[in-house]
Design brief:
Layout (H helix, E strand, L loop, with lengths): L14 H14 L5 E4 L6 H11 L7 E5 L8 H6 E2 L11 E2 L1 H4 L4 E5 L6 H13 L1 E2 L8 E2 L3 E6 L3 H6 L5 H7 L2 E4 L9 H17 L5 E2 L1 H9 L5 H15 L4 E2 L7 H6 L13 H23 L4 H8 L3 H10 L4 H10 L1
Parallel strand pairs: 1-8, 1-9, 2-5, 5-8, 10-11
Antiparallel strand pairs: 3-4, 6-7
């Protein structure tokens, strides 16, 4: 799938992403409410904008609102607006979010955070498309498509009494699950290059290439914060990196950190500077070589590429520390 055939905000080529995009385009053709589900930072708002952009409403407004940021006592005012004199200090009338989205799409992010009062207010509008601004005697009508998003399972909230079942049915006419980044194969690398290009353009700086360590990190990181985490990390590293390479390495696991010499005191056995330095270097070499062997499943050539060293030089270090590559291959086969 070429970049020209998909929304600019959605970047990816993994099977999970392509399946999601196929479903998204089908959903966009039908003017019904959609519930977009997925983990925090996975791209639910980008998916909502893509639905709008592929729908018959694409020339009309797209209005996004974070429901978790709407105070309970202001929910009706925010959604429906108010007339002049509706309450103290209401010197001018104000249109609400629904009126702003007239003819287009209203995206309700974190819909699960709506209070019971707010849920009732939204349900009334979904039932017949009518609403009444505060202080108005007449109901008004709006033609708005509702897209809602949640990072929790609304079915569980319904069973626990935290979300109205009738509102859930109204929102979940169609459902679009957005896959987490860790389930999207090599998409992290595509997204990283995209975010580098955006940062270079925004800050008017030369672009940077991805170091081999960064490519390894992109492929192995668990991505608890999904696409948002990746974008923030790439932007930060892009701004702080020297030279033309952007290098990010995975943190050393806690069990490996414990195997290293105490960094505060150098070597416990001596206060001699050279001896302490040599002890630390030996501990670092052995720990790093073991990690390389684990990551490469005992493949010395691959480990040498990850380390940025020649295979022969890495082999000498393995021999020096009596690290057998075959034992790591056996572990990988057993796993």
């Amino acid at each position: 799938m070429t970049p020209q055939s998909q929304p600019q905000e959605l970047i990816g080529n993994s099977p999970a992403f392509r399946d999601m995009l196929t479903l998204l385009r089908k959903i966009a053709n039908f003017d019904a409410s959609v519930l977009i589900t997925g983990e925090t930072g996975s791209g639910k708002e980008a998916a909502a904008l893509a639905i709008h952009s592929h729908s018959a409403r694409r020339g009309q407004p797209f209005v996004a609102v974070n429901c978790g940021a709407l105070p309970d006592h202001l929910i009706e005012n925010e959604l429906f607006g108010h007339a002049r004199g509706a309450y103290t200090d209401a010197r001018e009338g104000q249109i609400g979010l629904i009126a702003q989205a007239q003819g287009g799409t209203l995206f309700l992010d974190e819909v699960d955070s709506l209070t019971p009062k707010a849920q009732v207010s939204l349900l009334r509008f979904l039932q017949d498309g009518q609403y009444r601004p505060l202080g108005c005697s007449r109901a008004q009508t709006a033609q708005v498509r509702i897209l809602a998003a949640s990072n929790v399972q609304l079915e569980g909230l319904v069973e626990g009494g935290g979300f109205r079942a009738d509102l859930h049915f109204r929102l979940n006419v169609m459902e679009l699950p957005v896959p987490p980044l860790r389930a999207r194969g090599g998409d992290a690398e595509l997204l990283a290059r995209h975010f580098i290009a955006l940062a270079a353009q925004r800050y008017r700086l030369p672009s940077k290439e991805l170091h081999q360590d960064t490519l390894h990190w992109l492929a192995s990181h668990a991505w608890p914060g999904n696409v948002r985490e990746l974008q923030n990390r790439i932007q930060r590293e892009f701004l702080l990196a020297d030279g033309t390479l952007l290098r990010i390495t995975a943190p050393v696991p806690s069990n490996e950190r414990r195997s290293l010499a105490d960094r505060r005191y150098g070597c416990r056995d001596t206060l001699d500077f050279n001896a302490a330095k040599q002890s630390l270097l030996q501990a670092f070499e052995r720990s790093h070589l073991q990690r390389l062997m684990r990551e490469s499943a005992g493949n010395v050539s691959q480990a040498a590429r990850l380390a940025g060293k020649e295979r022969r030089a890495l082999g000498k270090l393995l021999k020096k520390h009596r690290i057998e590559a075959g034992s790591f291959r056996a572990r990988a086969s057993a796993a």
